[in-house]
TrEMBL record:
<dbReference type="InterPro" id="IPR011650">
    <property type="entry name" value="Peptidase_M20_dimer"/>
</dbReference>
<dbReference type="InterPro" id="IPR051458">
    <property type="entry name" value="Cyt/Met_Dipeptidase"/>
</dbReference>
<dbReference type="GO" id="GO:0006508">
    <property type="term" value="P:proteolysis"/>
</dbReference>
<dbReference type="Pfam" id="PF01546">
    <property type="entry name" value="Peptidase_M20"/>
</dbReference>
<dbReference type="Pfam" id="PF07687">
    <property type="entry name" value="M20_dimer"/>
</dbReference>
<protein>
    <submittedName>
        <fullName>Acetylornithine deacetylase/succinyl-diaminopimelate desuccinylase-like protein</fullName>
    </submittedName>
</protein>
<feature type="domain" description="Peptidase M20 dimerisation">
    <location>
        <begin position="196"/>
        <end position="341"/>
    </location>
</feature>
<dbReference type="GO" id="GO:0009014">
    <property type="term" value="F:succinyl-diaminopimelate desuccinylase activity"/>
</dbReference>
<dbReference type="GO" id="GO:0046872">
    <property type="term" value="F:metal ion binding"/>
</dbReference>
<dbReference type="GO" id="GO:0005829">
    <property type="term" value="C:cytosol"/>
</dbReference>
<keyword id="KW-0378">Hydrolase</keyword>
<dbReference type="GO" id="GO:0008233">
    <property type="term" value="F:peptidase activity"/>
</dbReference>
<dbReference type="GO" id="GO:0009089">
    <property type="term" value="P:lysine biosynthetic process via diaminopimelate"/>
</dbReference>
<dbReference type="InterPro" id="IPR002933">
    <property type="entry name" value="Peptidase_M20"/>
</dbReference>
<keyword id="KW-0479">Metal-binding</keyword>
<keyword id="KW-0645">Protease</keyword>
Length: 457
C-alpha cells in the first residue's frame, strides 16, 4: 500500500499542488506562480535557488554540492493546454487517483517527472547529511512546450563557461511490458512553409487549359523532394551525415518491439517502400525524414466549386540526425526549388533551432543508471540511441559537453498532451527509489575517485 511509503505520499501531495497550477506556456498562464512554487520546493530541500527571466516564462535554477564532477538535471514546469476539456474523465487541474493511476495535466509531462526526482533527492538526503561530493545543477524550464525559445540564450548567459558530465533529461519511458526505455539522443528539426501564388484571385476552372494551378504547383514541388521509400531527393541532404558507430548500430539491430505492434498501437497502415521488420527500428532512430504537415488552398467546402486556385501553401518538417544543421537544410531546399523551376515559390522558416544530438551509453553514470533501473523496475532497460522526436538538448551536449541520460516514468499509455494524461503510482514509487539510489551511487563514485586522486599525490 502506498500509504505506508512516506516519500511516495509526500510526492503525490507535491504533485497535486503543482498540477493545480495551470501553467500553460502557450497562453503564458500562471508561469510565474508555478516557477515560484517549484523554487520553494527546491529551496526546502537544501538547494540554493534563483528565478531567471525568460521570454515567456521564467527558469528556476537550483544548485548544491561541489566537486570536479557535475550533473545537470533538466525538467520543465509548463504544460500543454487542457483542451478539449470535455474529453477528460476528471478535472484536468485536479490530480485524481483511479485504478492505480494519477490523472491530471502535467502528471507525466513534466511535473510528475520533476516530482519523482525531487522525492528521490528527499529520500537520499534523509540518510546522507554530508555535503554532496559533486556539483548538482537543476534547471526547470517554463517554456519547453512552446519550443524553449529562451533556453539557448539563457544557458549562454547564466552558465557561459560551464562544462558538465551528465544531463539527466526531462523524461524517459516505461514500455507496455514495464521495461525502462533510456533515451540517449534526439533528432533535430527544420519546419518550413512553402507559398505559391499564380493569379490575383481564384479563376474559373476552365482557365486550367491555359494557366498553372497553385495547388498543383505546390504539390509538384513537394513531390520532387522525396521518393516512395522516403529517401529525400534534395542534393546534399545526406552529405554531412557521418557513419554510425558500430556500438550504436548494435543497439538498433534487435528492435525491442515488433513492427506489427507499432502498427497496431498507432493505426499506421501503409508503409514506405522498403520498410520491413528488419529495418523499421533503425529508421526511427537513425535516419532523417521529410514530412508534409499540411497543404492548403483552393476550395475544400461542401459540394463542388470549380475554381483554379490562385494561392496554395504547404507546411513541411524535416527530422534530422547529428551533423545535419537545420539552417543548412533550409538553404538546400531553396537551391532545390530554384534548380527545379520553382523559383517563384516563397520559403518561410518556422523552426530551425533544434539540432540533433546523440550520446554514448558507455559513460559510467549511464551504466550505473541502467543497473539501478533493472534493480528497481525488475526488467532489463532498453537503450534507445535516439528518440524519433526532437528535444532542445543540443545546447547541453554541444556547449556543456554532457552525456544525455533520459530515464523517467512516462509510460506508453500516459496520454501526453491529451485528455486523461496520467502516470502509474507503482512506477512513480519505483522511480523515487531509483532516483534516491542514483544520487547516492554517483556520490559514492565521486568520493572513490577523490580518494584515488589523493592517494596518487
Amino acid at each position: 500500500m502506498y500509504q505506508e511509503n512516506m516519500f511516495l505520499q509526500a510526492a503525490i501531495r507535491d504533485l497535486a499542488e503543482l498540477v493545480k497550477i495551470p501553467s500553460v506556456s502557450a497562453r503564458a498562464q500562471d508561469l510565474e506562480t508555478c516557477a515560484a512554487h517549484v523554487e520553494s520546493l527546491l529551496k526546502s530541500e537544501g538547494f540554493v535557488t534563483e528565478i531567471c527571466a525568460g521570454e515567456v516564462g521564467p527558469f528556476v535554477v537550483a544548485e548544491t554540492g561541489n566537486g570536479p564532477f557535475t550533473m545537470v538535471i533538466y525538467n520543465h514546469y509548463d504544460v500543454q493546454p487542457e483542451e478539449p476539456v470535455e474529453l477528460w474523465s476528471s478535472p484536468p487541474y485536479q490530480l485524481t487517483e483511479r485504478n492505480g493511476r494519477l490523472y491530471g495535466r502535467g502528471a507525466a509531462d513534466d511535473k510528475g517527472e520533476f516530482i519523482s526526482r525531487l522525492a528521490g533527492w528527499r529520500k537520499y538526503r534523509q540518510n546522507n547529511n554530508d555535503p554532496l561530493p559533486y556539483r548538482l545543477i537543476w534547471i526547470v524550464d517554463g517554456e519547453e512546450e512552446i519550443g524553449s525559445p529562451s533556453l539557448t540564450d539563457f544557458l549562454q548567459k547564466r552558465f557561459p563557461a560551464l562544462k558538465a558530465d551528465v544531463c539527466w533529461w526531462e523524461f524517459g519511458e516505461i514500455d507496455s511490458e514495464g521495461h525502462p526505455v533510456v533515451l540517449m539522443g534526439f533528432k533535430g528539426v527544420t519546419a518550413i512553409e512553402l507559398q505559391c501564388r499564380t493569379a490575383r484571385a481564384d479563376l474559373h476552372s476552365s482557365f486550367g487549359a491555359l494557366f498553372d494551378n497553385a495547388l498543383w504547383r505546390i504539390a509538384t514541388a513537394v513531390s520532387s523532394m522525396r521518393d516512395e521509400s522516403g529517401r529525400v531527393l534534395i542534393d546534399g541532404f545526406y552529405d554531412s551525415i557521418p557513419d554510425v558507430p558500430e556500438a550504436v548500430e548494435q543497439l538498433v539491430a534487435t528492435p525491442p518491439y515488433t513492427l506489427f505492434s507499432l502498427q497496431s498501437a498507432t493505426g499506421g497502415q501503409r508503409l514506405l517502400d522498403g520498410t520491413d521488420e528488419n529495418n523499421f527500428y533503425r529508421r526511427l532512430n537513425l535516419e532523417p525524414c521529410l514530412n508534409i504537415n499540411g497543404i492548403s488552398g483552393g476550395y475544400s467546402g461542401e459540394g463542388a466549386k470549380t475554381v483554379l486556385p490562385a494561392q496554395a501553401s504547404a507546411k513541411l518538417d524535416f527530422r534530422l540526425v547529428p551533423e545535419q544543421q537545420p539552417l543548412e537544410i533550409v538553404t538546400l531546399v531553396r537551391k532545390h526549388l530554384d534548380k527545379h523551376g520553382f523559383g517563384d515559390i516563397e520559403l518561410i522558416i518556422h523552426d530551425a533551432e533544434v539540432q540533433a544530438v546523440r550520446s554514448s551509453h558507455e559513460h559510467w553514470a549511464v551504466q550505473q543508471g541502467l543497473r539501478l533501473l533493472k534493480k528497481h523496475f525488475g526488467k532489463t532497460p532498453i537503450i534507445q540511441p535516439s528518440s524519433p522526436a526532437s528535444g532542445l538538448a543540443h545546447p547541453f551536449v554541444k556547449e556543456m559537453g554532457v552525456t544525455l541520460f533520459g530515464a523517467g516514468l512516462t509510460h506508453h499509455g500516459a496520454m501526453l498532451h491529451s485528455p486523461d494524461e496520467n502516470i502509474i503510482i507503482d512506477q512513480l514509487a519505483k522511480m523515487i527509489d531509483f532516483s534516491a539510489e542514483f544520487f547516492e551511487t554517483v556520490a559514492h563514485q565521486c568520493e572513490a575517485e577523490q580518494s584515488n586522486r589523493e592517494e596518487a599525490r
